Amino acid sequence: MSKPKAPKSKVKFSVYMKKYWQLYVMLALPLIYLFIFKYLPMIYVQIAFKKYSLVESVWKLPLAKKHGFEYFIKAFSNNDFKYALRNTLTLNLLDLVFGFPAPVIFALILNELCFIRYKKVVQTIAYMPHFLSWVIIYSLALQLLAPDAGLLNMMIRNLGGETIPFLNDAAHWIGSYISFGVWQNFGWGSIIYLAAIAGINPELYEAAAVDGAGRFRKIWHITLPGIRSTIIVLLIMNLGNILGGGFDRPFAFQNNLVMRVADVIATYVYRVGIKGLQFSLTTAVGLFQSVVGVFFLLLANWLARRFGERGLW
Asked: Which domains does the chain have, with CATH numbers?
């Protein structure tokens, strides 16, 4: 008697795995990393709802008052947290308004350059700030913008003007903070847009040239629509981080004169949680931050799909 044949789907799967198993082995390493360093620590989110103790297991910690929401209520009744929340939203929104269009504009300009060598030199110079730490960037800012010994203020003073408190006045500090953020990121951020522009069919530009379209018409009607989906995806990802942001940049730029506008959630968590040993309170703050970030991500993705774009999923 002949043996029954294996189902066609199983045969296809086994053939596929024999051919591509190396790719899945390579994929296993980042998946293990994500599980250990991203998903496994989520177990300790429960600290936000419990009274934390260094000597007790997280599973044995007693529930906090008010059905576990004691530390959330405490955070929202704390003026320092309210200021940190306001500053985080303000600085991230300004970063989005001024920092998000910058790499798009830079990529469009680079794409129009005819001299390849000059284009490569400009790209290299623009990418370099991305590899500098914020401590180094703040040191440069101090050398340039310090009230007394800063190069820019010395030039202003020599020309007969009054020095500008770039790093000591709240309004000027915000402008300096946003400017250095744009400077550090716009070159590196343009890489994705340049890759998207390279994928546009060059025949579209040739047809537009035949129809008499100038450079700006080609950008408006061909280049921008060609990278629109990339812009939407990156905008959604940036909106998901509207209440996030890194720790190193605001911490490096902070000083006592501008703390009312410079203290953000990341530095608040460091100061109150790590230095002040209030782990339950700052875990509650971090959980709130993550939930709001997910909400903005889902909202932005929904709006993108609503208006006919692909979105993230």
From this structure: 52-306 (1.10.3720.10)
CA distance 117 to 119: 5
Task: Judge whether 285 and 268 are in contact, CB under 8 Å.
Answer: yes
The C-alpha atoms of residue 2 and residue 80 are separated, in whole angstroms, by 78
Show pLDDT as tens, one digit a residue, over the chain (313 residues).
455 555 555 557 778 888 888 888 899 989 999 999 989 988 889 999 998 888 888 888 888 888 888 999 998 998 999 999 999 999 999 999 999 999 999 999 999 888 888 988 999 999 999 999 999 999 999 999 988 888 999 999 998 888 899 999 999 999 999 999 999 999 999 999 999 999 999 899 889 989 888 889 999 999 999 999 899 989 988 888 888 878 999 999 999 999 999 999 999 999 988 888 888 998 999 899 888 888 888 888 888 888 777 776 7
C-alpha distances in angstroms, 88 versus 67, 133, 240, 247, 281?
Answer: 29, 20, 13, 11, 18
Burial-class residue 93 by CB neighbours within 10 Å (0-12, 13-18, 19+).
exposed
d(CA 250, CA 245): 9
Closest by CA to 244, choosing from 116, 127, 92, is 92
| CA angle at 133 for the pair 176 and 189, rounded to the nearest 5° | 75
The residue to which tokens 């490096």 are assigned:
252
Question: Residues near 208 by Cβ (< 8 Å), separated by ≥ 6?
Answer: 217, 218, 221, 222
Q: What is the DSSP letter of 141?
A: H
Cα–Cα distance measured from residue 15 to residue 38, given in angstroms and rounded to the nearest whole number: 33
CA distance 289 to 73: 14
